[in-house]
C-alpha cells in the first residue's frame, strides 16, 4: 500500500490515529490522509470541472434524429442528464468510496445519437444502452471484469494513467479555445492550430491563460483549494469581462458567463423511463442489435477501466500491485450507471476523468463524490447557475492535473523492456491523438500481446489479455467486415 493510502500514525504511540467521528469512520477519511475540508473542496472542484456535461450532453443527443425523424427535447435532456449524474455519483460515493464522479459519457452519446438512433426509435436506442449496462453488471458479478483489469501489467497501467493525463490536457486546451481544429476546407494534414486562426485572440483565451497561471502558481505555493479558487476567480473575471466588453456569445463556446435572469428552473422528467429493451432488435435484426450492444459495452467497459485506474493512481489508492481495493464495488456502480443512463434517456453514464480535478484538491474518499452528487441535485433546480461557469474558467484545472498525472507515473515504467515500454507509449499517445481512451487501451493491449509473443515471452501474458486483445482486434475489423 502506498504511504498516502495507509492510516496516519501517531509519532508517540506508533498506532493508527482513530477516526474523529462516524463520518470519518465510514469514508475512512483520516485513514487515507485526507480531511473533510479537502473532500468538500475536491467534490466542488470536480463538479465545476465537469459541469459542462449539463450543457453538452443535451446538445449532442438532441442534434440527432431517430428513424422516424423525432428529436429529444432539450429541456428534458438537461433534467435526465443532471438527475442521472447525481444518482450515479452519489452511489459511487456511498458504495465505492472513491472520489470518482459519473455522468453521460462523451463518445458513447455520439454513438447513440448518430449510430443507433437513426436505425430505430429513441426508446429502442436507449434500450440497447440498458442492455449493455446489464451485460457489464453480469461481467462484474462473475468477476471477469475485475480479472481483466488485474491482468494488466503495472507498466501498462501507468501508460494508461499517463495517456489519460495527456488526454484531459488536450481536452482542456480544446474546450478552452487555446487549441482549435483546422477545418477540412483548409486542405491540410495538420489537424490542430493555436487559437482560432493560428494566433491567440480574444478575451476568453486570456481568461484561460490567466487561469492556468493562477492554478499552477497556487499549486506551487501549496495553497489549499488552489483549483477551486482558480475556477471561482476566473468565473468572476469572465463575468466582468463579458459585461464590459462587446464579445460575441460564440466566442465563449457552449457557456456564456452571464448572470442568469432567473437562476431557478423547474426540472422536466418527461424522458425518465421512456425505454424499450428489445424493440431495437426488431428494427435492425439480432446480429446487428448484438453488435450495437457490444459497441456500447466495449466503449463503457474500457473507458471506465482507464479512468478508474488513472484517477485512483493519482489519489494514491492503489496497492503495491497496482490494484484498487474494493474494485468490484466501483465496477458494479459503473455498470449500474450505464443501465441507468439508458433508462433515463441520458445515454450511458460512466466515470469521468475530470474527477482528477477533485483529486488535485486532495480528495481521497467517496465523501467528495457525495459533495459532487449533491451539487448535481442542486443543479436540477439551479441549472442556470451551474451552467454559467465558462470552459475557460474550469479547464485550467485539467491542464494542471494532466501534468501532475504524467509527473507521478512516467518514472514507474520500465523503459528498458520494450515489450512493455512500446505498448505503454502507444497507449499514452493514442488516447489524445485519437481522442479516445478506449482506442489507446485497445492498441496497447494488442501490441503488448504481439510483442511478448515476438520476444518468446508469450506465456507471461495472462489468458485474459489475449482474449481482450482478440476482442479489440475484432472490434477494429468490424467496419472492414461490414458489421457496423
Keywords:
single chain; mainly alpha; two-stranded antiparallel sheet; 4 strands; 2% strand; disordered N terminus
Brief write-up:
The protein contains 21 helices and four strands. The protein has 484 residues and is mostly helical.
Number of strands: 4
Please tell me what the overall shape is.
Answer: globular
Report the sheet with the most strands, covering strand number, pairing sense and barrel closure: 2 strands, antiparallel
Distance between the termini: 44 Å
Category from helices, strands and their pairing: mainly alpha
Low-confidence region ranges? 1-15
Instruction: Determine the number of helices (DSSP H or I, runs of at least 4 residues).
Output: 21
DSSP strand content: under 5%
SSE run? HHHHEHHHHEEHHHHHEHHHHHHHH
Number of domains: 1
| Biggest sheet, spatial arrangement of strands | 1-4
Overall pLDDT level: 87
Radius of gyration: 22 Å
Specify the helix fraction band. Answer: 55-70%
Question: How is the topology of this model organized?
Answer:
Layout: H1 22-27, H2 36-50, H3 53-62, H4 74-96, E1 102-104, H5 108-116, H6 122-141, H7 144-151, H8 154-176, E2 179-181, E3 192-194, H9 203-220, H10 226-244, H11 279-284, H12 286-314, H13 327-343, E4 349-351, H14 355-360, H15 366-379, H16 383-386, H17 391-394, H18 396-409, H19 418-434, H20 437-454, H21 463-477
Antiparallel strand pairs: 1-4, 2-3
Helix pairs in contact: 2-15, 3-4, 3-5, 4-13, 4-15, 5-12, 6-12, 6-13, 8-12, 8-18, 8-19, 8-20, 9-10, 9-18, 12-13, 12-20, 19-20, 20-21
Amino acid at each position: 500500500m502506498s504511504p498516502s493510502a495507509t492510516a496516519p500514525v501517531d509519532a508517540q504511540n506508533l498506532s493508527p490515529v482513530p477516526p474523529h467521528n462516524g463520518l470519518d469512520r465510514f469514508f475512512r477519511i483520516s485513514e487515507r490522509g485526507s480531511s473533510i475540508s479537502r473532500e468538500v473542496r475536491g467534490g466542488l472542484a470536480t463538479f465545476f470541472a465537469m459541469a459542462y456535461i449539463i450543457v453538452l450532453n443535451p446538445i449532442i443527443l438532441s442534434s440527432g434524429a431517430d428513424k422516424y425523424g423525432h428529436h429529444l427535447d432539450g429541456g428534458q435532456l438537461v433534467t435526465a442528464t443532471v438527475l442521472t449524474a447525481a444518482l450515479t455519483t452519489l452511489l459511487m460515493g456511498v458504495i465505492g468510496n472513491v472520489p470518482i464522479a459519473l455522468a453521460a459519457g462523451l463518445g458513447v452519446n455520439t454513438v447513440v445519437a448518430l449510430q443507433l438512433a437513426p436505425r430505430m426509435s429513441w426508446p429502442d436506442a436507449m434500450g440497447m444502452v440498458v442492455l449493455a449496462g446489464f451485460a457489464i453488471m453480469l461481467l462484474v458479478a462473475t468477476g471477469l471484469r475485475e480479472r481483466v483489469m488485474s491482468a494488466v501489467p503495472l507498466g501498462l497501467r501507468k501508460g494508461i494513467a499517463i495517456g489519460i493525463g495527456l488526454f484531459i490536457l488536450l481536452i482542456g486546451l480544446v474546450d478552452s479555445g487555446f487549441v482549435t481544429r483546422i477545418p477540412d476546407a483548409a486542405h491540410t494534414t495538420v489537424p490542430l492550430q493555436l487559437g482560432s486562426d493560428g494566433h491567440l485572440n480574444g478575451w476568453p483565451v486570456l481568461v484561460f491563460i490567466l487561469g492556468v497561471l493562477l492554478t499552477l502558481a497556487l499549486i506551487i505555493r501549496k495553497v489549499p483549494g488552489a483549483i477551486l479558487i482558480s475556477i471561482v476567480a476566473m468565473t468572476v473575471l469572465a463575468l466582468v469581462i463579458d459585461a464590459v466588453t462587446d464579445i460575441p456569445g460564440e466566442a465563449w463556446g457552449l457557456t456564456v458567463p452571464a448572470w442568469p435572469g432567473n437562476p431557478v428552473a423547474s426540472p422536466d422528467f418527461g424522458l425518465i423511463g421512456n425505454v424499450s429493451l428489445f424493440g431495437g432488435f426488431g428494427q435492425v435484426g439480432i446480429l446487428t442489435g448484438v453488435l450495437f450492444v457490444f459497441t456500447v459495452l466495449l466503449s463503457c467497459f474500457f473507458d471506465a477501466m482507464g479512468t478508474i485506474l488513472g484517477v485512483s493512481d493519482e489519489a494514491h489508492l492503489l496497492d503495491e500491485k497496482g490494484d484498487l481495493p474494493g474494485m468490484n464495488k466501483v465496477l458494479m456502480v459503473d455498470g449500474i450507471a450505464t443501465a441507468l443512463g439508458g433508462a433515463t434517456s441520458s445515454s450511458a453514464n460512466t466515470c469521468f476523468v475530470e474527477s482528477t480535478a477533485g483529486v488535485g484538491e486532495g480528495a481521497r474518499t467517496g465523501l467528495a463524490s457525495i459533495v459532487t452528487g449533491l451539487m448535481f441535485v442542486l443543479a436540477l433546480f439551479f441549472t442556470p447557475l451551474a451552467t454559467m461557469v465558462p470552459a475557460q474558467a474550469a479547464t485550467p484545472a485539467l491542464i494542471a492535473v494532466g501534468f501532475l498525472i504524467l509527473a507521478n507515473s512516467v518514472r514507474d515504467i520500465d523503459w528498458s523492456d520494450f515489450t512493455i515500454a512500446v505498448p505503454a507509449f502507444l497507449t499514452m499517445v493514442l488516447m489524445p491523438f485519437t481522442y479516445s481512451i478506449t482506442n489507446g487501451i485497445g492498441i496497447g493491449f494488442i501490441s503488448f500481446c504481439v510483442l511478448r509473443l515476438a520476444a518468446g515471452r508469450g506465456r507471461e501474458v495472462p489468458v485474459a489479455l489475449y482474449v481482450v486483445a482478440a476482442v479489440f482486434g475484432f472490434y477494429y475489423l468490424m467496419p472492414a467486415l461490414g458489421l457496423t
